[in-house]
Amino acid sequence: MLRFLMLSIGLIFFSPLFSQEEENLKSVYFPEYPAREDVSDFAEEEAEFPEGATEMIRYLSKNLKFTGDTLTLVSECILNKINIRFIVEQDGSVTGIQFKNYNSNCPEFYEEVTKILSSMPKWNPALSEGMKITTYFYLPIHIKWN
Cβ(45)–Cβ(126) under 8 Å? Predict the structure, then answer.
């Protein structure tokens, strides 16, 4: 019987309750990666997946699946939550995908997530003063293993 990875995506921009978590992500989770000077943490209008967050959840749930031996291996080395930071460029492309607490015993998981995130449709880029800008996007993913 095939078992699938079920994702429950917690998007930090959905609720003001996540503002503290967002600050923690920015200041604690990715200290080993140098910041790009042309990338902003803030925008008047945040970058958005085409057709919104619900469609992003569908996209990730549909495309990010592990089965059989890979699922067993991945479920043994990945905790229930991972935090991802990536860059949404001015043209809407996703680059610079980074993970908190990368587990080198499980490269298959990170390779698959990176592949799926890199192949997402172009986003609607963030706007500031009416201009498209490059921004970081922080994405916590809660994983339920079934």
Answer: yes
Q: Where are the domains of the chain?
A: 5-145
Kindly write down the DSSP assignment for every residue of 16-53, as one continuous string.
GGGHHHHHHIIIII-TTSPPPTT-BS--SB--B-TT-H
- Does the reported pTM lie above 0.85? no
Lowest mean pLDDT among 20-24, 30-34, 39-43, 83-87: 20-24
How do 5-9 and 126-128 pair as beta strands? unpaired
User: Is 90 in contact with 132 (CB distance < 8 Å)?
Assistant: yes
> What DSSP letter does each residue of 79-96 carry, written as one string?
-SEEEEEEEE-TTS-EEE
* Residue-wise pLDDT tens digits, 62-74: 888 776 766 666 6
**Contact yes or no for 119/65 (Cβ under 8 A):** no
